[in-house]
Specification:
The chain is an alpha+beta fold. The chain has six helices and six strands; from the N terminus they run H-E-H-E-H-H-H-E-E-E-E-H. The longest helix has 26 residues.
């Protein structure tokens, strides 16, 4: 409880600092015409992952070597001039921000630039014209852990032939692997994840 309370205090302090920054933008007359993006690189488990361990260790309270939701679901707020506030439920990725910013600023993307971008612009998702179902990610410099996620399901690739599937509707804490009970879902998500992985490998291999 002390650790969580301290973390909440840090969030409150950060909120105050950001508020001061916004106040200064308004004083300078820049706020209304500014694109503002507030994000975090990762979350903190703060003990949430201890329920998954046979022998819990407090040293894992601040570990970042996993891809469970308490670590990968991070805040993302985007203010764009002219767009009304809205909460968007689509699955998005931080890697989508680069092409999104280019679109917002009206910066054309060359063929070479497009071929190297792994994310996709979120402008259509933000405007409500379309939704984005799948989000992907990897942990580690060599991609030791991969995952594919929707709002309902999440598949984690732990190794060559090791996978975990979670039903996020009934198990948001990701404590029970249901890949054996839902082989059809696991198979679909494995195919989806492999296609995403190979696509990104091809992009990195292009000259």
């Amino acid at each position: 409880e002390y650790i969580i309370a301290s973390y909440d205090g840090g969030v409150r302090h950060t909120d105050n600092l950001i508020g001061g920054f916004f106040d200064e933008l308004k004083r300078l007359g820049l706020y209304d015409n500014s694109i503002i993006i507030v994000l975090a690189g990762h979350g903190e488990s703060l003990g949430d992952d201890l329920a998954r361990e046979a022998e819990p260790s407090s040293s894992r309270l601040f570990g970042h070597g996993q891809v469970y939701d308490e670590l990968i679901r991070a805040p993302l707020l985007i203010k764009v001039p002219g767009l009304e506030p809205a909460r968007i439920s689509s699955s998005v990725q931080l890697i989508d921000l680069f092409p999104t910013i280019l679109d917002f600023l009206g910066i054309p993307q060359s063929r070479e630039l497009k071929s190297g971008i792994q994310g996709r612009s979120l402008t259509s998702v933000i405007s409500g014209k379309e939704s984005q179902e799948f989000a992907y990610g990897t942990m580690g410099s060599r991609g030791g852990l991969n995952f594919v996620r929707t709002l309902e399901w999440k598949l984690i690739r732990l190794g060559e032939n090791a996978f975990q599937l979670y039903d996020l509707k009934v198990d948001p804490k990701e404590t029970t692997d249901v890949s054996a009970e839902h082989e059809d879902v696991a198979s679909e998500f494995k195919k989806n994840l492999f296609e995403w992985s190979f696509k990104n490998l091809e992009k990195r291999a292009e000259p």
